[in-house]
Amino acid sequence: MERRTIGAAALDVGAIGLGCMPMSWAYSRSEQRGDRSLRTVHAALDAGVSLLDTADMYGPFTNELLVGRALKERRSEAFVSTKCGLLVGDQHVVANGRPGYVRRACDASLRRLQTDVIDLYQLHRADPEVPVEETWGAMAELVSAGKVRALGLCAVGARAVRRGADLHEGTIRQLERIQQVFPVAAVEAELSVWSQEALVRLLPWCAARGVGFLAAMPLGNGFLTGTLTPGGGFERDDPRARHPRFTAEMMAANQPIVAGLRRVAARHGAEVTPAQVALAWVLGLGRHVVPVPGAKRERWVVENAGAAALRLTTEDLAEIAALPAPRGSWD
Predict the structure, then answer these.
(1) pTM for the structure as a whole
(2) Please, is 281 exposed, middle or buried when counting C-beta atoms within 10 Å of its C-beta (0-12, 13-18, 19+)?
(3) What is the arithmetic mean of pLDDT over 18-40?
């Protein structure tokens, strides 16, 4: 697989990563099986997918334990990204950016991941009670101690800002503050054919500063794969059951987006899928961009990896650009 170097820290990763969260957190919990998930991680590494993206809150903790089982055998083949800063309680999630907590969280992640160094340590969310510079300074100390190679920041969620505002204004303010403390190697934020807000300011900000961009949810939480049926329903604990774009009405209304991806895929051969087209579109946004689709099964990670070889034409890109804007229940 094509390699990409992201960030001033020159992080070497495959062109496509693997979001490990669905294997043990949130999505379709009845399908989360440890042994099958472990095989999926191995299949990803076999396909040249080196970036494994996890977090201590996924599970909580069980996702890192799962990744650690794979790393025990194949650490040299993997680029490990994990996150700190969020604590999971009973029906709630709270931020903790206290320096002492960050240090303890890193040590705990290292134990669960069965490694002596984390390639990319990300701040999941800034703690409103702690200056972000203090949290970032503690994370920078972890780099100096040799426990972490580089630091990243996850973007503030779109739901955290009012509609009509720049969705990433808060993230950019945080980035400009922490850059004064220690270099940001990568930013992780949602980016896909049907969620392009990062193109306005956040992606250009990263490109101008040599900061890598990890595109989260590049398959639109599964919608852009074309495998979800409107009205098919989701398990109660699946966040899509409460997402305004995943009501039966809105999924039906957004089918023209999937249809457009299918048309583009058909021009490249019967084996090319809408998901691969969606990932190739993200890859085409810049050499500093790495899509990180989530997956639970071997077949999906192999299919996703195949997108790295797909080259979209000018005609393809024009058709994707002309697709209707996605709708949600707020429209």
Answers:
(1) 0.94
(2) buried
(3) 78
